[in-house]
Amino acid sequence: MAATDSGYTQDEYIRTERSTPTRYASRASYDRAAVHAVIDEALVCHVGFIRDGAPVVLPTVHARNGDTLYIHGSSGGRFSLLDGEPVGVTITLIDGLVFARSWLHHSAPYRSVVIHGTARVVRSEEEKLSAMAALIDHVAEGRSKDTRPASRKELAKTAIVAIELDEVSLKARGSQIGEEPEDLDLPYWAGHIPLRLAAGAPVPDENLAQGARIPDYLVGYSRGGIQA
Predict the structure, then answer these.
(1) N or C: which end of the chain has fewer CB within 10 A?
(2) pLDDT by residue (tens digit) across 111-125?
(3) What is the number of domains present in the chain?
């Protein structure tokens, strides 16, 4: 299967030295659809970079448009200085809690994407508007067309950083318990508790315009996910 210019075959990203885990390599996957599913479900990512010789990791919101990851920041913040710099991005979903008979084997089912790349500060107004729309729609599909677009003043206050999804891996753990054989007869409860993000009912703003109704895409809001 031929590789494309974006660093993946039709179905999988290309494995590199940096994207190969040093522990539990069997849990790693380069499946493009599975990687995208985690990115698209998660609401927060963490971006790591070097500033003044020291590591910095900051949380922010993100969105994927094809094989480009966009992250949001302020034009007065540190993300606006990342143009051309190497960055690392992690996106993690916790799907449960594993309770074992021993301390060591307590764990958590998870899905985690790690991205290595070079940051590109978006300068084009057209791409910036498209990226901001993607960020809004990442939270609730269709929301960008149901709200006022950003003004030029608001665009100037916003920093959007793009990272191409070239060097990417997914690592996942299920809900299995890795007990020591000699511990199986111990009288302690063992098992797992599935976790998922649950949304409450929409609460209207006190200054809501008369006649404004809850959009259909916010009724029964959820972020998808899997049962552990």
Answers:
(1) N
(2) 999 999 999 999 999
(3) 1
